[in-house]
Design brief:
alpha+beta; five-stranded antiparallel beta sheet; 10 strands; 22% helix; globular; hydrolase; fatty acid metabolism; lipid metabolism; carboxylic ester hydrolase activity
Length: 237
């Protein structure tokens, strides 16, 4: 919150052949109460950008502490799980031809949760490579997903996690980014919102030829004034 001190620490946990895992830890300190706590932990995968036709091979990371050795080992397991998840989801998508029937009277149609937003990428939104900041795209995705989730609850949704956030391609200054969000499913105290991002330059916009650049699944929950979790209604796909 405003007035609190945020500390962000990042380090390369492990370098693979042409990619690396960067661990990110965010902590906060409240100056008035002197309370310190962890806000978020994340793992980002970066790919070494090729120069010409040759790929850049990364050198191994030098391990100094016990924590370095532990994260180095866990990086391999996280990579294995991540690649395994992709295969599992592809299999489910190929086999999901059945339509479930929902007969609950209070179920809310997912059509009511669909939200679309369009953003124009301007120079302050771009990094030193000329590409749109990944964090800027994530911020726009969170905004549209939050609006989608709020249509199911009478309170402000709180973001808990961002899953399977992946860059499928770049976007640049001048591109129009179209964000589409919809609630995929609700659980007892949480809701999953899927967001798809498509990019257009001027020519692609006229021809309606979109570039799919991002997708992610955002998990929200809501709390009342006492900090208690609130339940979400069922949805009808």
């Amino acid at each position: 919150r405003v007035g609190q001190v945020i500390t962000i620490k990042a380090k390369v946990n492990r370098a693979f052949k042409t990619s690396m895992e960067v661990g990110i830890k965010v902590t906060l300190q409240d100056i008035l109460t002197n309370v310190e706590k962890i806000v978020s932990v994340a793992y980002a995968t970066y790919v070494a950008k090729p120069v010409g036709g040759a790929k850049i091979e990364l050198e191994p990371v030098k391990l100094l502490s016990t924590e370095d050795h532990l994260e180095h080992s866990l990086a391999v397991e996280r990579r294995r799980i991540r690649l395994g998840y992709e295969q599992v989801f592809q299999t489910i998508m190929q086999e999901s031809n059945k339509e479930d029937t929902f007969e609950e009277e209070d179920a809310v149609s997912t059509e009511l949760t669909h939200v679309q937003s369009i953003e124009l990428v301007q120079p302050p939104h771009a990094n030193h490579h000329g590409n749109t900041f990944g964090g800027q795209i994530m911020a726009w995705m969170e905004t549209v997903a939050s609006i989608s989730a709020s249509r199911l609850c009478r309170s402000y949704p709180v973001l808990k996690s961002v899953n399977m956030f992946k860059f499928w391609g770049p976007s640049f200054v001048g591109d129009r980014l179209v964000f589409n969000a919809v609630v995929n499913n609700t659980f007892q105290n949480s809701v999953e919102v899927g967001v798809r991002v498509e990019a257009y330059n001027c020519e692609e916009w006229i021809k309606d030829q979109a570039r799919h650049i991002n997708s992610a699944f955002l998990i929200f929950n809501t709390v009342n004034d006492k900090g208690e979790l609130l339940a979400f209604p069922r949805i009808k796909p």
